[in-house]
Design brief:
By secondary structure, this protein is mainly alpha-helical. It contains ten helices and two strands; from the N terminus they run ααααααβααααβ. 68% of the residues lie in helices and 1% in strands. Helix 5 runs antiparallel to helix 6 and helix 8 runs antiparallel to helix 9. The chain is flat. The protein starts with a helix and ends in a 25-residue tail after the last strand.
């Protein structure tokens, strides 16, 4: 590597890599999928922290204790679980970083795809800080709920990026009429409410996240759980109505298949939800239900994204930058 190469790498490492590597489209798709998978994994492991009562296994943040950045043997299994979940944040960052690098290196350059990768990065950073606040305020249920909702936002952005890696950059062309699109948006809104009320069920429920006295939301858990169930049935009803309408208007196979997938996922999630309710919330089933909520959210977003197609379109050459670079690609936009 020449001195000019080193200077270019320091100045803009992403552009430097992009000038020397062109990933296959499948590589970019796999990188985006890896980021999506890790965004779900971090939710599930975060749930495991709460369900095992390890939320304060590391009693402070950003260190694990006042004197140690990592857990110690004296802290027991709860310290290992909490610190292990913190370490997984770095794995998530690596997955998102890989998605950004792959998207930035793709030829031709797709600015919209790279921006989705960076959006994930900033959501991860914000959620990491919020996770630290959760610990510092002793697992306040409102901050725990916000932590989960921000994780759901991360899953949404990761899902959109994964879908965009399999599409072109042309203007989106609708595959269904406006009335069907409105029905889907109602379903998305109902799902958002379902997830939000689910965090309230958690905040008022028995799994506080630690064996010590932890503040709970001052709400009747039974009533909130019933509201959560009602919202779930609304989402199921809207999904069935959507499938019926799509069949009636002879919609393309894509939206029909995604709607069918969502319906199956919702039924499975409903079974888990009712079983855990009538068996006094066993930790394993609660964890499965959390995983299911992530899958439901992804399935809903896939239905929404299946309502249009984006064809390939030529991408303009990258404009030159005001400094010298080893190649034209290095001089591209950031």
């Amino acid at each position: 590597m020449t001195r000019a190469d080193a200077q270019a790498a320091v100045r803009n490492p992403l552009a430097f890599v992009a000038a020397r590597w062109t990933p296959q489209p499948r590589t970019v798709q796999r990188a985006a999928l890896a980021a999506l998978v890790m965004s779900v994994v971090i939710v599930v492991t975060g749930g495991a922290v709460r369900l095992t009562g390890s939320g304060l296994g590391c009693p402070t943040w950003p260190k694990c204790t006042e004197d140690s950045i990592n857990n110690t043997a004296e802290m027991g299994i709860h310290g290992y679980i909490e610190f292990g979940n913190r370490l997984l944040t770095y794995v998530l960052c690596a997955a998102v970083g890989w998605a950004i690098v792959a998207a930035r290196s793709q030829k031709p350059y797709r600015r919209s795809l790279t921006r989705l990768g960076w959006a994930q990065f900033w959501v991860v950073m914000g959620n990491a800080i919020l996770g630290g606040i959760v610990v510092l305020v002793g697992l306040n249920p409102y901050t725990v709920a916000a932590h989960f909702l921000l994780s759901s936002a991360l899953i949404a952005v990761a899902t959109v990026m994964w879908q965009r890696t399999r599409e072109g950059d042309g203007e989106p062309r609708p595959l269904v009429g406006k009335s069907v699109q409105q029905l889907v948006w109602y379903m998305v809104a109902a799902t958002v409410l379902l997830i939000a009320v689910g965090t309230v069920v958690t905040g008022a429920g028995p799994h506080a996240g630690d064996s010590s006295e932890v503040e709970r939301m001052p709400l009747d858990w039974e009533s909130v759980s019933k509201l959560h169930a009602v919202l779930a049935w609304i989402v199921v009803t809207l999904t069935f109505a959507l499938w019926f309408v799509l069949k009636a208007v002879d919609a393309p196979k894509g939206p029909l298949a995604r709607t069918r997938d969502l319906f199956v996922v919702l039924l499975a999630q409903g079974v888990v939800g009712y079983v855990q309710y009538f068996t006094d919330l066993p930790e394993v089933l609660v964890g499965v239900h959390m995983f299911g909520s992530c899958v439901v959210w992804i399935a809903v977003l896939r239905v929404l994204l299946s309502l249009r197609e984006r064809p390939e379109t030529p991408v303009a050459d990258l404009p030159a930058q005001p400094y010298d670079a080893v190649s034209a690609s290095i001089a591209g936009p950031r």
